[in-house]
Amino acid sequence: MIHIALPKGRLGEKAYQIFKSLGYGCPEIEEDNRKLIFENPENDVCYFWAKPSDVPVYVERGAADIGIVGKDILLEHGSDVYELLDLGMGKCRMAVAGIRGHRPAADKTLRVATKFPNIARSYYASQSREIEIIRLNGSIEIAPLLGLSDVIVDIVETGTTLKENDLEPFETIVPISARLIANKASYKFQYDAIRTICEKIEAERSAQT
Fold first, then answer.
1. Considering the entire predicted model, what is its pTM?
2. Are 149 and 161 part of one and the same domain?
């Protein structure tokens, strides 16, 4: 039986529909109940919902064989898992943004407000730029507006929130989308089953394009 970690929310619901369309459905997961784990022995699958940032933890430690997670979470946590497929869902980008028309001075330590300190550090280290990380958990767009930071590093989808707050993206760090990941031991010992899932997903996507 393949154990699959799904992120709670729209992304996980879309991912489940993909698995269902490929013959890995589990009717119980769509029922109105409070269960946390959903099994369908007929299809050899077991699903559970997890907080998005917890999905790679379950997969890395073997509680799940495979899972769906955003590339941003993989980069931020440096998870020791196999990244098997880009599912092309939840597309956005990790970007540097700041006050419109105002570029920070290049000769000063850059104050960076972010929910993604590891991604920010790695990005600016590649530029040999000295930075000060300001870790925030809420709406970080207000940080440069209040003078708390020079820029922010955050996920940008449409850019509407930035525009409405007189901010603009300066640089794209990396494109973000949902990825199918696997536990390294599971990929070895359940190779055929996991590769079959990957091949079915790839075939389904090819048929749609």
1. 0.90
2. yes
**Whether residues 80 and 108 fall in one domain:** no
Other Cβ atoms within 10 Å of 51 Cβ, number: 11
Range of the domain at 83: 2-90+177-208
Phi, psi (deg, nearest 5) at residue 147: 80, 10
Q: In degrees to the nearest 10, what's the CA dihedral of 113, 172, 13, 64?
A: -80
Please tell me the total count of domains within the chain: 2
Q: How far is CA 191 from CA 182, 184, 185, 194, 195, in A?
A: 10, 10, 9, 5, 6
Query: What dihedral angle (degrees, nearest 10) is formed by the CA atoms of 78, 62, 66, 77?
Result: -10
Local structure of 189: helix, strand or coil: helix
> Is residue 114 within 8 Å of residue 140, measured between CB atoms?
yes
Token couple for 157? 């989808």
126 vs 66: CA distance, rounded Å:
31
Buried b / exposed e over 67-77, threshold 16 CB at 10 Å, is: bbbbbbbbbbb
* Residue position matching structure tokens 């529909």: 17
pLDDT band at 33 (very low <50, low <70, confident <90, very high): confident
> In this structure, are 138 and 190 located in the same domain?
no
